[in-house]
From TrEMBL:
Organism lineage: Bacteria, Pseudomonadati, Pseudomonadota, Alphaproteobacteria, Rhodobacterales
Catalytic activity, reaction form: L-glutamyl-tRNA(Gln) + L-glutamine + ATP + H2O = L-glutaminyl-tRNA(Gln) + L-glutamate + ADP + phosphate + H(+); L-aspartyl-tRNA(Asn) + L-glutamine + ATP + H2O = L-asparaginyl-tRNA(Asn) + L-glutamate + ADP + phosphate + 2 H(+)
InterPro entries per the UniProt record, alphabetical: Asp/Glu-ADT_sf_sub_c, GatC
Recorded family membership: Belongs to the GatC family.
Species the sequence originates in: Roseovarius spongiae
Assembly: Heterotrimer of A, B and C subunits.
UniProt-recorded name of the protein: Aspartyl/glutamyl-tRNA(Asn/Gln) amidotransferase subunit C
PANTHER family linked: GLUTAMYL-TRNA(GLN) AMIDOTRANSFERASE SUBUNIT C, MITOCHONDRIAL (PTHR15004)
Root EC class: ligase
GO molecular function, one term: ATP binding
Amino acid sequence: MSIDLQTAARVAKLARIRVDDDALPALADEFNTILGFIEQLGEVDVEGVEPMVSVTPMRLKRRADEVTDGDRQRAILSNAPDAREGFFAVPKVVE
């Protein structure tokens, strides 16, 4: 697959990136280079290789899943510059 200038311009527009017309050929070349790397990865034989998350086998640390009521509202609201009726008070931003 090859990326032409029109496709590069469309990708830039979809990504909301402004690209000058004189920079489009370089962008298309970069896209083509990336696609070449992806094609190379597709050629690798991964038959029998298990997917992994890390290069070293390790188990993630987990905490016990215990239900608590929290009961920290007063401590949390003590840091707020303005709190009313048990909630953070913020300035009105929509008329």
